[in-house]
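pinned: reference chain
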Amino acid sequence: MTKFLIRNLFSMFVTMFLVSLVLFFLLEVAGGDVTVRLLGVFATPEQRESLRRQLGLDAPAWQRYADWLIGSDWRAQRLSPYPLTTMPNPQTGEQEWWAEVDGVLTRWRMVDGELLAIQRTADGREVTSPASVAWTTDETGAEVFWGVDTRNNLVKWVRGSDLEVLVLSKAGVRSERGGPQQYIPLRKGIVRGDAGMSLQTNRPVSATIFSRAANSLILAAAAFVLVMPLALFFGMLAGVNEGKPLDRIISITGLGFTATPEFVVGVFLILIFGIWLRWLPATAVFLTGDAIFRDPKILVLPVLTLMAAEFGYVARITRASMVEVMQSPYIRTAFIKGLPWRRIIFRHALRNALLAPITVVMLQINWLIGGVIVVEVLFGIPGLGSYIYDAAIFGDFNAVAAAAMLTVLIAVLTRLIGDLLYVYLNPRIRFA
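pinned: its structure tokens
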């Protein structure tokens, strides 16, 4: 059993690593030039190159992959004269990068050729004053200083430089002189839960993706908890009554649900219960982060839509498995011996019949988490599916990569859970 678990865990880590390589390669090849999306098609090559440096896209591909996977703080620390650390923003709670200068959290910015220090006080305020730093001489003879800027980068300023850089802000795009000549976007890496900054929102990906994933998880969990017992029960009922009217009714109903697209079911539910009868909200309105708990009724129609799509598929697989088991010689022998019907079904037939549906059930978890984009868009739920869609349309590679790895992690974990359930249902696997 221990070897079985170790082998599966090793396989899980290898799968995650290989998927990360393929994912990064696909984003590199098919991602396109994100600077065009950020600046527009009329941006000059110099402007795009300036933005590429700020995003760290001028680094080699292997370096960007390493930064994305295990973080860039380890190599940035070798260049920084001060220890680097993260602290939450007092207003937003999002993690920000700072340098510790004699125990004081400090950042820097260049204004009109003068380097200013931004220090955070004990009460969370930020005080700006002229910087007193030790400039060093690099191999070219220029005086340089590595420091943390206000955009979570470790940057290299050159004294007396008149380099023009592009600055993106909520007000638009502007140019500044005396900007840094080199950038290292600071991040801890996806293995430590830090996927970098979102290009679409200019916020840490981890600050937005987990709340969106939580919405999808709640939606998927509610649908899973309700539909799986029902689907397994009716599938078992149809398999035990093969060829009878009850079997036909369950099979035809399940086939109808399976063949009907989710958006069609969702539209009908909205028309009937949301518009005509007005029993339930037609769309989900998220005014606060805990809107689901404040008004659980917004989940009823999305959950029913997911249940309709899942019920038929799982029920039919369970029925087919149950029919096969009921035709097995040992089941016929049990009936001949006169064992009670209930004991034959629940103690002997059901346990073996569940082996096939377990695979389907585990796969449906992956679909519920990553494939509910139609339901989320239809009902206005800010979940993981719509998050991936919006990020992909915008070209936000940091957000796309993080969301994709999160769904892959869920997939390999559910596969591991499925393997453990196999071991429980079939003890022979323990010695395989």
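why pinned: The chain has 16 helices and eleven strands. The CA atoms of residues 40 and 317 lie 51 Å apart.
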